[in-house]
Backbone:
RNA sequence: GGAGAGGUGGCAGAGUGGUCGAAUGUACCUGACUCGAAAUCAGGCGUAGGCGCAAGUCUACCGAGGGUUCGAAUCCCUCCCUCUCCGCCA
């Protein structure tokens, strides 16, 4: 959520900044609503003040045993107008709030301008795709060849966009989650957290999934939603909190399943494990001092990259352009891993600085030295998407005979095994 | 799931229709005393928002939402949460 003050002060400037992300701000609507709000709020508060003063006077008179019927009659006439104004003010505030909740974040000045994925800017590459003198298989062919990936059965059990892993691939998947958690906790300074996989609507509003993106979520009974990412429960740890400045930065890492309905993505990546209704992800979250959030973004990105380096998987980092960034982000780097079967780099992590956008929705603040409450900045990034990392290992480490070499760092988690065959 | 108790400021805790945004204690900040500290004394000390150049002033908030009333922390309704006992359960 943007600060309503910035809209009040410079609505045209705001509209301009949002244009770059293909959002057109309804300036006239806002100005009209604000003008109305001002009149109605001023009038309402004036009436409330009069009523309060009169009621107080009645109380004082009654306490002295005097008759108060004259004031009583006077205040009675306020009732209707006050009620009407209060109701109108409520309605206007509600509309204003809904309007604010529907506006995406401002892109940071360093974000490249562009319309789509095609305009994202490559920042760096790491590693070399291996040269192969055999026909590379995709992970589906490899996994089915090993009888360790079984999409047909997954369809029977649940439906499309679910997967079933068995044997060493299931174990490799587990090993990956363990390895990532261990790396981030023991070397990158994150505190491991275990969080609920079902959350309430307030949490989703806090991180920005609601109210606009309900169709991407799975909801269950009792008003709960399955988490689309650990970002939601983890970031909301600080919702409605006033943190002490010494407690910053807060760095959390969580390994959770993620559930996405992916409405509107029909036809994309239908084959294999790339786009699933359920997938595992290790998520990095940082809650930081507002002046340090871009430093923090660089370090968080580095933490995610380190996973790929240790696994020896070639990747590149791209800076998302204004038109391709998510709703809540001020700046986002994607990490894309090389998938030889697709002969392309594919997203495996997304690292974003949300600045105060989520913090404002969540009322997540810290107390400054001077005792003022200021919004924190929030960041998160995948470190990494476990399913896609598994896909990358299968495809990058395959041998001509369809076996897969296990990355060295994972072997301790695999009982010393070197190869899946 | 059944029965009971309860949710008030950072914490503890009073307040059951009127001058209550809320006593008191404690924590914290400032000042005095002190060479310094402790103790003591004085003052300050919640959050969000409106109007205003500012000083300031007004409004809302006592788990959440509605209602009754001139007036609600206090009465009524719905929901949420916590605790105790019983049952069930990984």
Residues:
């Amino acid at each position: 959520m943007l600060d309503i003050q910035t809209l009040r002060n410079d609505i045209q400037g705001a509209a301009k900044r949002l244009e770059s992300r293909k959002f057109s701000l309804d300036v006239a609507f806002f100005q009209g609503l604000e003008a109305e709000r001002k009149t109605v709020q001023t009038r309402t508060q004036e009436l409330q003040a009069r009523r309060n003063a009169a009621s107080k006077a009645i109380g004082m008179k009654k306490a002295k045993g005097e008759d108060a019927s004259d004031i009583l009659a006077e205040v009675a006439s306020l009732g209707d107008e006050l009620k009407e104004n209060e109701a109108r003010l409520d309605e206007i505030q509600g509309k204003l709030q809904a309007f604010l909740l529907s506006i995406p974040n401002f892109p940071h000045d360093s974000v490249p301008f562009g319309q789509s994925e095609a305009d994202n800017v490559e920042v760096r590459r790491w590693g070399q795709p291996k040269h192969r003198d055999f026909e590379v298989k995709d992970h589906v062919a490899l996994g089915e060849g090993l009888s360790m990936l079984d999409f047909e059965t997954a369809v029977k059990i649940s439906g499309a966009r679910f997967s079933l892993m068995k044997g060493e691939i299931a174990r490799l998947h587990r090993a990956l989650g363990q390895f990532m958690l261990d790396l981030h906790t023991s070397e990158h300074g994150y505190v491991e957290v275990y969080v609920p996989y079902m959350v309430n609507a307030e949490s989703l509003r806090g991180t920005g999934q609601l109210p606009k993106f309900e169709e991407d979520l799975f909801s269950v009974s009792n008003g709960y939603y399955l988490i689309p990412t650990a970002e939601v429960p983890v970031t909301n740890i600080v919702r409605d909190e006033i943190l002490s400045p010494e407690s910053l930065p807060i760095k959390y890492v969580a390994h959770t399943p993620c559930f996405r309905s992916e409405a509107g993505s029909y036809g994309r990546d239908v084959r294999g494990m790339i786009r699933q209704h359920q997938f595992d992800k290790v998520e990095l979250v940082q809650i930081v001092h507002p002046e340090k959030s871009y430093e923090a973004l660089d370090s968080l990105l580095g933490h995610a990259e380190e996973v790929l380096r240790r696994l020896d998987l070639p990747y590149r980092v791209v800076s998302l352009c204004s038109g391709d960034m998510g709703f809540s982000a001020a700046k986002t780097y994607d990490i894309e891993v090389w998938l030889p079967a697709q002969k392309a780099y594919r997203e495996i992590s997304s690292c974003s600085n949300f600045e105060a956008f989520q913090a404002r929705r969540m009322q997540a603040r810290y107390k400054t030295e001077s005792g003022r409450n200021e919004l924190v900045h929030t960041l998160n990034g995948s470190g990494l998407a476990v399913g896609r990392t598994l896909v990358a290992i299968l495809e990058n480490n395959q041998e001509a005979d369809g076996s897969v070499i296990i990355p060295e760092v994972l072997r301790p988690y695999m009982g010393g095994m070197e190869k899946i065959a």
